[in-house]
Amino acid sequence: MASKADTKPIVGLPVILVATVGIALVGGFWYLERASIAPAKGPVLTADAKAYTRNLRLGGVDMKATESAAHQMLVEITGNITNAGDRKLRSVRVNCIFYDAYGQVVLKERVEIVKTRYGGLAPNETKPFRLPFDTLPGSWNQGLPQLVIAEIMFD
Q1: What is the pTM of this model?
Q2: What span, in angstroms and rounded, lies between the C-alpha atoms of 48 and 99?
């Protein structure tokens, strides 16, 4: 007759560890997949703001790349925004959409081009903007990004 000390568990410790790590990996991949397709956070373009976008003009948009002192590439998008409407704007944000050689989006970043602390943007006023990017993906096609009005805050 066998004693209690001679009995072995049905499932060994290595099998339990492998199963736990496998479940954690599957859960991690599932979470990362779901997080990458989550909608953009932050305010959306209201109906009032969407109608007002026809009064905003982006002009003189240009791009240049320079190397920083730390030997890092800095890409700057510069241009002007004109408010051809009749309302004073407190803030305007745009989505900068960068593409790869196949036309696939590789980066979408929301940046503010009109800021309250710089006086906003009055009717019939034009102001310059500068958008620096220092962490663009290597797969970026080196072309000017698409700039899309994403948010307008009125005074």
Answers
A1: 0.69
A2: 29
Distance CA 99, CA 90 (A): 30
pLDDT at 71: 79
Cα–Cα dist 125/55, whole Å: 11
In 3D, which of 141, 57, 133, 140 has the Cα closest to residue 92?
A: 57
Per domain, the residue ranges of the chain are: 11-36, 47-154
**pLDDT tens column, 97-154:** 999 999 999 999 999 999 999 999 999 999 999 999 988 999 999 999 999 999 999 9
Q: Looking at the domain 47-154, which fold is it?
A: Immunoglobulin-like (2.60.40)
The answer to whether 129 and 73 have CB atoms below 8 angstroms apart is: no
CB atoms within 10 A of CB 97: 14
